[in-house]
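ARCHIVE CARD
Drawer: 12
Card no.: 0347
Subject: one protein chain, sequence and derived structure
Cross-reference: see card 0346
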Amino acid sequence: MRLSPYTPGRVAHEVPGREAQLQEIGGMLALPALHGLFSGRIRVDIGPRGVGKTSLLRKVRQDALTIGLSPIYVTAGNGPLSAVIADEARSQIQRWGIPGGPGDWLDRLSLTLGVPGVASVTAQASPHSPLPQATRAFRELIERTASTAREQGHKGVAVLVDEPQDADDEGLKTVAYAWQELQDSKTPAVFLAAGLSHTPDVVTEAVTSAERFAFRPMRDLQDHEVREALTDPASALGVRWETRVLQDVVATTCGYPYAVRLWGDAMWSAAGSPDSGGVLGAGAFDAARASVDQDMNSLHRARWSKTKGRERELLTAMAQLGGIDVARSEIARVLGLASSALGPARQSLLDKGIVQIAGHGLLSFTAPGFAEYVLALE
């Protein structure tokens, strides 16, 4: 039995439909890796849950390693952002096995940034150090870590942050101001992140110099990209898709990357994990559909369970209005409210990744089938 090449959550060797983004990111990685230069802007790829942001960032981590950079990969929200990055840098340096350990400089910087586990941190340091002090410490952290990486045979460092919309305001300020102060340096470093669609709002609220961030939206896949995402992994193992079944699956996924991987994985399992020469066809379709429906229903149920009160009223109104490109004014009309009254619930649903901004004054559900799920609850 061969493992499914589609299993959701696994690191993808390729990220279909993201070639242009990966090419742009590759250019940023090349600055420190090939030219020894500092990459001045912080790039943030943004999109709703399920469009493959984490897969993209994991692929970037692989690419960084391939061209000689040392990646510092963290998920925001587990503490002050600057401290989380510093803690991972400490772990990275320890893995290099440098004689004498990471060094006093990292202990000092970690203490300033409030890294958990550093000796006497609770007595001597606060995670909310004065911003100038924290900014200087973080700037030196990047400079010294990149320098140490080069001493260990790497080309520099790539800081990679998942879910930046969950970062603390002070951490965002510290990172942004430190990165700005590094502009004229020769530090071989690059900073890349991937977050939800409203990440620009979070960053702009916290940081006055938000122009240092380059936000790049991630869209759902086009039909030809879905076909590629389904057929390429199978073809690499000598397995083909029946044309009619492939067409049906492409139409069913609505271009939602998470659903694409669910369908690929379910078809592979229902077809008995085929050997080379096998086919993913009509005989596996019904069982695959049942599996995908269960998984998508679990996704919808989990999202609904995170909501309450006015949020659920807004979601129900959106579902009644179709769930795609729904005007905020129409939602307010259905609920008999002023449009401004929707603000807190709307923002909360954006924060949870359940809805996304689809244009000026427009909202859409982030996952296909959610409107039907909500209507079935009535």
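Annotation on reverse: The radius of gyration is 23 Å. The first strand starts at residue 42 and ends at 46.
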